[in-house]
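task queued by scheduler; priority normal; single chain, no ligands, no partner chains; default sampling; output format set to C-alpha cells
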Amino acid sequence: GQGSGGLSSLTADSGEYRRQEGIVELRGQVAASSAKGDRIQCERLLLKFSPEANRSEWARAYGSVRGTLTAAEARAAEKTYSASEGILYFDAGGDVRSVGLTGSPAPVSEPNRQLSASSVELDLAGGRPVSSRAKGDVRLRSDRGNAQARLASASFTPTGDFQTLELEGDVVLEAEGRRGLADRVVDLPDRG
C-alpha cells in the first residue's frame, strides 16, 4: 500500500498484480484506507495505477461495498456510503475527487442528511462535497424535510449546505407537516 497515491493500507484474502495493465486486483474481505482516513470495504477491488507515476488513478469496488469519506476540515462531517458497486477516482495528490455508486439503493449519509438512489455520483474537493447527481428512486432525507424524485442534482457551499437542489420526475416533498407534488422543483437557498 505504500506509495499507492492515497491508499496507504490494502488487505485482502488474495491479490494479483497485472503489471502490463497497471492493475492490482484484490479478492475476499477487501479493506483499504488512506492516510487521511478514507476507508472502503468490499468483496473485490480493482486498483488502477498511473503509468507515469506511482499513484492510484481509480479504484473499482464490487460486492457489499461500504466505506467512509473523511473531510479535510475537522469540523466537516464524515460521509458513509454503501452500494453493490462503486468507483473512486483520485486526484494527483491521492485524495478522492469523485465517487460513483450503484445499488438497490446506494445511500450516502451524513449526520443531518441522507441521499439514496439506484445511482449516485458525488464530486469532492478537500474531502467535502462540491456537487452530486442521483438517478432512479431518489430519496433525500434531511433536517429540512424529505423528498422523492426520479432525478436529483445538487451543489454545495464550502460549509456543506445546499447551494442549489434540483429534483425532477414525480417529485414528492414533505416538511413541517406539509406535502407537495410536482414534476420539477428547484431550490436555491442562497437567494434569501
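post-processing summary
- DSSP finds no helices and twelve strands in the chain.
- The chain has a mean pLDDT of 89.
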